Amino acid sequence: VNPASFLRGLRRFISHPLVVSLLRVALGAVFIVASMDKLRDPSAFATNIANYRILPYTLINGIALVLPWLEVITGTVLVLGVWLRAGTVVVLGMLFAFSVAIGQALFRGLDISCGCFNTNPNAAKMSWWTLIWDLIWFCWGILIWTFDHGDYTVPKFLNKRKDSTT
Amino acid sequence: MVLYITMNANSGTCVRCDAFALMYRRANGTFYEAVKCSRSSGNLGGPPCPSPDSLIRMNELTKIATQIGALLILSVSVALISNAARENRLPLVMPFPPAYQCASLEKPGVPMDPYKALELYGKPGTVFIDARRGAAFHQGHIEGARPIPYSFVEPLSKEIVEGLKDYTHIIVYDNGKDSEASKLMAGELAQAGVKRVVYLEKGFIGWVKAGGRYTGKAPEGYDQ
């Protein structure tokens, strides 16, 4: 297989409006699912954040309260395709921050769990795979930013319906 | 119809911007002033009129920035309201010091009864490790114990682990009700390859009650 033509084919596949829309919905769903446990127990999530030891303790509880809601709101924004560009930027920003936090914790050898989907501090210890997954999500977000032009979104669907009725 | 025109500073001529001049003025405050003028009004000293493409891009960026701001404000508002409505609401500032917890709890160390530890006390190759943090060690400790404060999250250094491998019996203790710090430290040492490492059940106070020797002040109860 010619690598250049393979890459061209891959690009064509990923940039297909339906495929990139599915990627967007999947990423939004990941964020919604990730927020559930944190919304249920913000106190445990605050301990998760404290374990990373990069934030001043005065900010920890505030972030533990706001971050899950930011995740669920931007996740919903991505799933619906409303405010697509803004939602993608916020998700990319969060993923970048998570990558930095996880990377520094791994570099320092901190014995902590990620707190990504499960707030139990005694859950499985984070590993380099945690960081790799986070970077995969980050690249996923860049694909959405680059290729998703809002072809399969709720606003587009509503506009089409409005046009057809008029 | 109002026609918006701005001046080209380079050529000194009037350039028609149509509706874009208004947008540009809104995006950049007063720096680029859109003026209503005629070809005969002369050079007003303004910069060149921007291209429609750059105006559209700028308008798009402004829109994205506004929406990001709205997402953040919405998240903060909902978070504060939901926290206020919660029965066990989280204080907005975490009490100091923050409560750290590590992920190794599933592999705690092996316990040792204080009376069993008394039998090993003073024998060659036996060492007692005080895992407590702060000034607790200086106030009172098991006689001959070594202070190695355990911080839950920070891993034990290689030097400490290697240094302990020379001993035949290592007994870690603290003075917490559940001996959590010593339990975790003993578990971490065992996982790091240190053999015959245990934690002292019932802590420092259990040791004192069992008649063990100590230096300084005896504890009155478990540490909070």
Mean of residue pLDDT values of chain B: 76
Arithmetic mean pLDDT of chain A: 90
The total count of helices of chain A amounts to: 7
Name the chain pair whose interface involves the most residues: A-B, 40 and 38 residues
Spatial separation of the terminal alpha carbons of chain B: 78 Å
Number of DSSP strands of chain B? 9
- Structural shape of chain B: elongated
Structural class of chain B: alpha/beta
Describe the fold and architecture.
The complex is a heterodimer of chains A (166) and B (224). Chain A is mainly alpha-helical and 166 residues long. Helices cover 77% and strands 0% of the residues of chain A. Chain A is flat, with a radius of gyration of 18 Å. The relative contact order of chain A is 0.16. Chain B is of the alpha/beta class. Chain B has helices at 20-27, 52-85, 114-120, 136-139, 158-164, 180-191, 203-209; strands spanning 5-7, 14-16, 110-112, 126-130, 140-142, 146-147, 169-173, 197-200, 214-216. In chain B, a hairpin with a 6-residue loop joins strand 1 and strand 2. In chain B, helix 1 packs across helix 2 (52-85). The longest helix of chain B has 34 residues, at 52-85. Chain B is elongated. At the A-B interface, helix 3, helix 4 and helix 5 of A face helix 2 of B.
